[in-house]
Amino acid sequence: MFKRAKMDFYAVLVMFVFTGILVVIYLNQPPMEPRERDYTNVGSYQVFCIWIGLSVLFLVDLVKNKKAKTITAVAATAIALLAAPFLMGSQNWDDHDRSDRYLGISFAKNY
């Protein structure tokens, strides 16, 4: 995006900074809260989704280009489709692993 449309890139960057970092500074959020206040960052999440969509368009253009061979296109697609679930599983497995944890089941049976 930066090479093709610099003004659009700067507009999206300013929108990300204004709806993310500056909102946190303006609202003076304390670092520790009893619950997360993600609703204040919705604008920056949307801008991040715009960047993800533009990167997908870049990958589609790369695959459509004559320089990209079929093997490269298949490899890029496989990496893109497998990277997110693998990362989510590897980062969150310890939080959701119920091996040797019987408190919830015992509580449900004994209640």
Structural class: mainly alpha
Kindly provide the radius of gyration, computed on alpha-carbon positions and rounded to a whole number of angstroms.
21 Å
First and last CA, distance = 58 Å
Unreliable parts: none
| Counted beta strands | 0
Instruction: Let me know the largest β-sheet.
Output: none
Mean pLDDT: 82
Helix share bin: over 70%
Q: What's the total helix number?
A: 5
Strand percentage lies at under 5%
Order of H and E elements = HHHHH
| Global morphology | flat
What does this structure look like?
This protein is an all-alpha fold. The chain has a domain at about 5-65. It contains five helices and no strands. It has helices at about 5-20, 20-25, 40-65, 70-95, 105-110. The chain is flat. The N and C termini lie far apart (about 60 Å).
What's the quick description here?
This protein has five helices and no strands.
What keyword list fits this structure?
single chain, 111 residues, mainly alpha, flat
Write the layout of secondary structure elements.
Elements (H helix, E strand, L loop, with lengths): L5 H14 L1 H7 L14 H23 L5 H27 L6 H8 L1
Helix pairs in contact: 1-2, 1-3
